[in-house]
Known about the structure:
Bound molecules: adenosine-5'-triphosphate
Strand content: 5-15%
Order of helices and strands: HHEHHHEHHEEEHEEHEH
Largest sheet: 5 strands, mixed
Number of strands: 8
Radius of gyration: 23 Å
Distance between the termini: 69 Å
Strand order of the largest sheet: 7-6-4-5-8
Shape: globular
Amino acid sequence: MKEEEVNRCQIQEWYPKFKSVSIKTLIHELPEPFVEYLLDDSGPFLLPISITNEDALPNRVHNPHEEEDYQVSEGSDDESEQPSSSPPSFPKLELEIKESIKTLGGAIFPKLNWSAPKDASWISTTGTLRCTSFSEIALLFKSSDSLVHDLCHAYDSCSDKTSSRPRSFFLALRKWYPSFRPDMEFRCFVKGQHLIGISQREVTTFYPVLMEKKDDVRTLIHEFFSNKIRSRFDSENYTFDVYVTGDDRVKLMDFNPWAAFTLPLLFTWEELDQEIEVDMRIVESRREVRPGLKTAVPYDYFDTSPGSGWDQFLRNVGEEELTHQNRGA
Ligand SMILES: Nc1ncnc2c1ncn2[C@@H]1O[C@H](COP(=O)(O)OP(=O)(O)OP(=O)(O)O)[C@@H](O)[C@H]1O
């Protein structure tokens, strides 16, 4: 794969051309200090100070110095342990984003050049990627591992890789759709500029309604590809994601490079490369559902294997209980 094929799939590259067939999106170039803030994991986890007083975590300690004082007086009297970092602030970006969120109806879905912070949704107060303020976006972006891919590894599978990152990063604010139906999302696979495969996007669930709609959806997506995508997207091989609305309109959600980091969902890349029995795949019964390919919770949360955090915690609890019992006996 070439860098230019990866670059074409960045939302700031494709969206202006496909705006009329996609969902309403406003795009902001990110200032480099904000990118550095996202990349920096050397210090404590600090959210930017909000100049509009919109806090992503309303119950946290507001004044970071109070937090530091508390830690110092409770913990240690060693002055060298005092935290030195102060929270950053991005007033201009915050105000621009506030304005765009308002234009988009008050709630947005955020994305970086290629990816959304899907793995971080658990940390938001709603458990979704719905954001109403800059602080909520910063919290999701700072907590997401998916975005590390965009920030540092986007070109890792390129044969002509010259850099680990694009020159600029962009924040895409997409109008929030509360009634998005996961059964109507599909990933489409284009090889040699031919649409060879369509897969249900949410592979962890069987949707009986799709059994009836499969043929209609296939026709709608093929027409959409021929009329709106094929001659206008310059790569030979790529994937695109679509959403089919209740009134049978097809909306373009995203482009992704062929193979590499793109999930093949109900196909395998081998099948797609060799075009073996590729057409449209949906989950056809409850027995066929696939395990989640991405979890919404960090692995450490459910890893109980020997040596894991949970294992050590449970051992400590067990030891404490024994000590109590022994004392009581
Ligand atoms: N505007 C929106 N409002 C509400 N939900 C959305 C919106 N846009 C996307 N979603 C939901 O979030 C999911 C992930 O979005 P998206 O495909 O843009 O992320 P991504 O990081 O590019 O994912 P992938 O890497 O799998 O392509 C979508 O499948 C959809 O269910």
